[in-house]
Amino acid sequence: MGADNQTWVREFVLLGLSSDWDTQVALFALFSVAYLLALLGNVLIVLLIRLDGRLHTPMYFFLSNLCLVDVSYATSIVPQMLAHFLAEHKGIPYVSCAAQLFFSLGLGGTEFVLLAVMAYDRYVAVCDPLRYPVIMHGGLCARLAVTSWLSGSVNSLVQTTITFQLPMCTNKYIDHISCEILAVIRLACVDTSSNEVAIVVSSIVLLMTPFCLVLLSYIRIISTILKIQSTEGRKKAFHTCASHLTVVVLCYGMTIFTYIQPNSGPSVLQEKLISVFYAILMPVLNPMIYSLRNKEVKGAWQKLLGQLSGLMSKLAT
């Protein structure tokens, strides 16, 4: 077989979470409900922020971006996974696999940078509240958001390009729920050490650097909060950061565990479960975390529901 024939794979086959039919049907039902909840929760949060003038602040501007990232990330993976649960042949074309890797990797990178941006926003709000409106002006917020999206996209373009230049020989079975970068690299029939180095470098740039910035921001935030003399003041200051801090802990923890050491990292099963966590559970949890733990969002919900109730009463009469 010639080198050209060995290099070109027209289609990959995703092995998914299980080969048992009953298990696949059960997972289809469970993940379908979770995906719909993720779509509904994140879209409603974005609409709420758009409709309520009290939420037109930098914090909620970045939150709306986070919701869009979560919805897009879930959509890049979950619909195809749901289709494969009910399909006998679980193939994905070469080009579609590359596109899926590009979008999922890019959106994942965008989320990590965005979380660092949100930590900086909370740092300014707590540590320099009097200058907050001047520092976090609309132009800066827009530039920070664009930087988040661009950094994730550029990294993804580079990683996807070098990954799909690898010769796959006759290997086409991806032992994963999606075209995840480590799973695709394992198919290569050449030495992939340079790709693994590239993953570590991009992880340092787009994962560890934002994580360190988040850590520094929260060290300063906690230090400032502890200096506040009134208990009520400390509570209020901590409350402004609680939701974001919860999301940061959930989001960064598993990814650091997965990608910093690709050679000695988690098992294939753990990789699959981590992907399910990010593709389904995080998009479901984020709107709940920000809604249940945030007085402003709850107040906006109550106002909107009150307006809808009043409108329905008028229509009924």
TrEMBL record:
It is found in: Cell membrane. GO terms for molecular function: G protein-coupled receptor activity; olfactory receptor activity. Keywords: Cell membrane, G-protein coupled receptor, Membrane, Olfaction, Receptor, Sensory transduction, Transducer, Transmembrane, Transmembrane helix. SUPFAM superfamilies: Family A G protein-coupled receptor-like. It is a multi-pass membrane protein. The chain crosses the membrane at residues 25-48, 60-78, 98-120, 197-219, 240-261, 273-292. The keyword Cell cycle does not apply. It comes from the Eukaryota. InterPro entries: GPCR_Rhodpsn, GPCR_Rhodpsn_7TM, Olfact_rcpt. Its main location: membrane. One of its GO terms (cellular component) is plasma membrane. Residues 41-290 form the G-protein coupled receptors family 1 profile domain. The keyword Nucleotidyltransferase does not apply. Belongs to the G-protein coupled receptor 1 family. Putative odorant or sperm cell receptor. This is Olfactory receptor. It comes from Odocoileus virginianus (White-tailed deer). The lineage of its organism: Eukaryota, Metazoa, Chordata, Craniata, Vertebrata. The gene is LOC110122523.
